[in-house]
Amino acid sequence: MNETIAAVSTPAGRGGIGIVRICGSEALRIAAEFFILKHKKPIKPYTIRYGFIYDGGLPIDEALLSYMKAPRSYTALDTVEINCHGGYAVVQKALGLALKAGARLAEPGEFTKLAFLNGRIDLSQAEAVMDIINAESDYALASAARQLSGSVKNRISSLRDEILDVQALIEVSVDYPEYEDADRTVIIERLSGISDKLTNMAAFANLGRALAHGVKTAIVGRPNTGKSSLLNALLERERAIVTEIPGTTRDVLSEKLHVGSLILDLMDTAGLRQSADSIERLGIERTLACASEADLILWILDASCEMNEDDLAVWEIIRGYRRVIGVLNKSDLPPIWDTDGMAARFGIPFFNVSARYLYGLDSVKEHIINLFAAGDITSGDALTAERHKQAAERAAASLQNAAEAAGAGLPDDLISMDLTEAVSALGEITGENAGGDLIDRIFSSFCVGK
Ligand SMILES: Nc1nc2c(ncn2[C@@H]2O[C@H](COP(=O)(O)OP(=O)(O)OP(=O)(O)O)[C@@H](O)[C@H]2O)c(=O)[nH]1
Ligand SMILES: [Mg+2]
Hints:
Blueprint: E1 5-8, E2 15-23, H1 27-32, E3 35-37, E4 48-55, E5 58-68, E6 79-86, H2 88-100, E7 104-105, H3 110-117, H4 123-134, H5 138-148, H6 151-175, H7 184-203, H8 205-213, E8 215-220, H9 227-235, E9 253-259, E10 262-268, H10 278-293, E11 296-302, H11 309-318, E12 324-329, H12 339-346, E13 350-352, H13 361-373, H14 386-407, H15 412-430, H16 436-444
Parallel strand pairs: 1-7, 8-10, 8-11, 11-12, 12-13
Antiparallel strand pairs: 1-2, 2-6, 3-4, 4-5, 5-6, 9-10
């Protein structure tokens, strides 16, 4: 691990500045081979110095160099960053000079991987770095920033410590049977308590993910109710084809829409009905898959005509889903039902809307914002990564097994094995128990230069 690595940390293309980052014990020596300081006095750590990049005897660019000394740097290793102008050629030239002077080209995410391997951050914090880069909404940014500052790490570590406490209690009686058996009721209570906390964190994870990365919102209904028109109306552009022919939309169309601080992943779908057309049937299968994965369903009805059996068949499919909003479209025509009656009949909120005349859309948006902003999720430390959720669920299941084993009077060492499994599942979140494959997979999705 004594290699010094280098990469361009700014995006490819033209920009005000471009940054080449060099990291490792040789960083300063490598930079000095092509960066000539204007004033010759030695570089102090945590200062920025002015100078020129030279290729052989030729000046290439004027630039700034900053130096962060191990272990107080992003990677915990010596790090030099050269800020030159952000042109493709100049940045590539500076990188090439660093490589020629002995640096190795960094892999994607390698700087952050070093920060993790050197113990400066845990795996959940490393993942948060990428979440910050990818954040497209205020919520996404805030939740990633909390995770970077250690929210997930701290909660998981404290739960892990609680498990280890219980395990210690049990192991005293395994190792020294002459000691009294640890009090089983206390153990069962403590294990169930920790398991409940983890189950809660996992249960909020879908919501956390939706808030951070986009609320999957499926627009569903029977053909011709105006689903594609609603998509276009919400996006304020003609994204989807709209015709008076039922069965127009065949594929799922998805587009992002910012609503307040939320991002909706809006999906227009093929209308649901019994169809003999094989292409339409494939579209309908996609609609069903899309609806089952959605965080939110907008059920579109034509307010100007009676409900028919296709509408009711749609309801039978979506009625079990958690968040469904009824949208009575075409309310510009004489409406047949009122929203209160419909809300009472189906137990979900209904809104009068006209996708054609852009009426009623704001109330729907406002309702969606309230739906997702409610609860303690916005201030809490919800998990947002599927990986964390699954590990938390496995840990909770192991704790539940341990509690049941304790209740059934099974031997202490069996209980202890379940606890070891729970601790190891939590260790996957923080990285203490993450295998090399998992770690490689996580960092390979990072940007180069991060
Ligand atoms: N009067 C009125 N007509 C509308 C409104 N919204 C949509 N329509 C009309 O209803 C017809 C169907 O609209 P689409 O948006 O294609 O309906 P859809 O639900 O996507 O239909 P499929 O893709 O076939 O499932 C078109 O002729 C639209 O112009 C509305 O708010 N008012
Ligand atoms: Mg359509």
